[in-house]
Amino acid sequence: MADTMAASTTARARARGGRRLSAFLPGAPQLAAGRWGAGGLALLVWLGCLWVLVARLARVVEALGGSWDERLALATLVAALATVWGWSWWDAGRAEGPRRVGVSQWDLAVRAFSKNRTAVAGLMVIVVLYLIALLTPLLAPHDPALQGDLISERYVGLSGAHPLGTDQFARDVLSRLLYGARISLLIGFVSVGISVTIGTLLGAIAGFMGGILDGIIMRVVDMVISFPQLVLLITIIALFEPSIFLIVAVLGLTLWPGTARIVRGEVLTLREREFVQAATALGYSKRRIILRHLIPNALAPVIVAATLGIGNTIVLEAGLSFLGLGVQPPTPSWGTMVADGRNVLLNAWWLSTFPGLAIVFTVLSFNLVGDGLRDALDPRLRS
Amino acid sequence: MTKYLLRRLLGAVPLVLGIATIVFFAVNLAPGDPTLYFLSPGMTQEVVEQTRINFGLDQPVHVRYARWLGAMLTGDFGYSFSHSRPVLDVLADFLPNTLLLSACALGVAFFFGILVGTYQAVRQYSLSDSAFSVVLLFFYSMPSFWLALMLILTLSLFARNVWEWPIWFPASGMTSTEYDFLSFGGQVRDRIAHLVLPTLSLALVLTAGIARYMRGSMLEVIRQDYVRTARAKGLSERVVVFKHALRNALLPIITLVGLYIPVLFGGTVFIETIFAWPGMGRTIVEAINTRDYPLVMAGSFFFASMVVAANLIADVLYAVVDPRIRYE
């Protein structure tokens, strides 16, 4: 009795110490406890946001009455700081009580994922990238559309005023790179969201219903898959007016067959399982069985495919922009920036190099997370 | 086997027709009038109408579709506006160049992909295994057009002008301007030199994918009993890896051919544009930009049909090399 009391007192004392630390350096207690993924991310976001607040104070104040863009950035800044601080405080104060007895598949997956160092690193990069994309109006050193002196400031190499140089209109490459992140991440996220939703629904319907419906859906899938994706995309986009909306729509509507195939395969095996038979015996409607019983159980491979798909889509979007069929200038996009530098490679190598590196690291992070998720979500691969 | 082949071939027919349909409607339902290409401001309304009638554009869509499909089945793909030649002639000029480039890239990608993947699997969890994994994932995440520009930047421009290396590779075209004056050996060398950078740009991304896949496949095979038996017999590691394990691990890799052909053709669109390679990918992009509809339709149709064919060949090959798979 006394032992447990003493133990709980020390635990509480440690928790109090952790809380005190977390008030100043959120993430530090978690980091000290060896949870370097969550703790490191929290600390990184905390310090980064604080740095923005201090270094860009004038702009933060301006943003209060600024455009919706700047206000969104400000809201993100506040929300990020509050979230990190609040989470760390709550987490550090949580005494190491008895672990929950029942552990769900998802808990196991989260545990397996957090042991995978490269995947966690990839996730950290992605979170930071999305934060940067939202905070860009506060972060960017210059206005991305602002043209400098076309005679003296074009193609300036790496320098203090322009860390990544300037382009053919004497615009700051770093600022354009930061704004370009918004396009890539937005298009990647939204179009994969659309295609995964369509693919999951159609795949589940095809797998569960079978028969003619299955035949029709899968033949369409075969057709769209055997099309060289890029040729289909450029054909459709070139014939209409290129715009962000069109790209998202076209990517979303052409990338679903992969997901549909995966989900159909999963549903075909799930359909014969007892819980689905039980649901059928209970007289549930087909809609309910598909939405409530089949799809949630077929979701794991879909999540993996979606994560890998975002990377793929970012590359595709960059490619379309590279061909001039994507996001139209002056909106900065990584693909367009690579294309801008194409004809001046020798004299201004930084123009194509840095946006490309940005693409590679973004896609790499998504691929790392995707690989990690695949290992974590597959019970056979868990050690 | 013959029956299976026949069934697959018959199954491919509706697929190809469906693709033709998608192509037709994607192009024809899009806003914009192809006859605008031939119109000039001074033309009277009658001439405009007559041009539309000449192209059959006065007919409703379903009639045009039936006509187009009928003509295509007899091998008539129409007339390319921008090249002022029958579409089939244009394709005959550019398709071989694309096939040459694709074949080289595919060959390089599979050779190195299989090599690296096997090496990684044999040395699983070693330092070189993880080093390769990181490098491969890096290439795997790379857009091929950016890789192409970086290769040009380093192996062509900087190598020649800044670092003054003895070897640098040409960055555009299939041959040099003085090609016709070279000796036969010089011509061969010139062609190969022009192939290096485009092939590498296409192949490196694929290599990464193949190696990742190969590593997994090899790891699975290496744990099999017959590999253990081969080791237990006292066979040398080389024989075990290359004769017993590799051959079986290669089986699933064959399906990758079908999977990577569309990726490859998509890649040629960029690579040919960047390297001024006179092939189908570049021609299609130009055709789209000049609104050369017959060429766009025929070009995408050819690409898609080749993908179907490649998938078919991969499946059949798989059935041939793996006796365990028997299709009724």
List strands and helices in order, with pairings.
The complex is a heterodimer of chains A (383) and B (328).
Chain A: H1 2-24, H2 28-32, H3 36-55, H4 57-63, H5 68-93, H6 105-115, H7 117-139, H8 173-209, H9 211-226, H10 229-239, H11 244-254, H12 256-270, H13 274-281, H14 286-297, H15 299-322, H16 334-340, H17 350-377
Chain B: H1 2-28, H2 45-54, H3 61-73, E1 79-80, E2 85-86, H4 87-122, H5 127-140, H6 144-162, H7 184-222, H8 225-232, H9 237-274, H10 280-289, H11 293-321
Written overview of the protein:
The complex is a heterodimer of chains A (383) and B (328). Chain A has 2 domains: 2-101, no CATH class; 173-381, MetI-like (MetI-like fold), CATH 1.10.3720. In chain A, 74% of the residues lie in helices and 0% in strands. Chain A has helices spanning 2-24, 28-32, 36-55, 57-63, 68-93, 105-115, 117-139, 173-209, 211-226, 229-239, 244-254, 256-270, 274-281, 286-297, 299-322, 334-340, 350-377. In chain A, helix 7 packs across helix 8. The two termini of chain A are 37 Å apart. The model of chain B has no long low-confidence stretch (mean pLDDT 84). Chain B folds into 2 domains: 2-86, no CATH class; 94-321, Orthogonal Bundle (MetI-like fold), CATH 1.10.3720.10. The termini of chain B are close together. Chain B has helices spanning 2-28, 45-54, 61-73, 87-122, 127-140, 144-162, 184-222, 225-232, 237-274, 280-289, 293-321, and strands at residues 79-80, 85-86. In chain B, 35% of the residues are buried. Chain B is mainly alpha-helical and 328 residues long. In chain B, strand 1 (79-80) and strand 2 form a beta hairpin. Chain B is globular, with a radius of gyration of 25 Å. Chains A and B meet through helix 9, helix 10, helix 15 and helix 17 of A and helix 1, helix 5, helix 6, helix 9 and helix 10 of B.
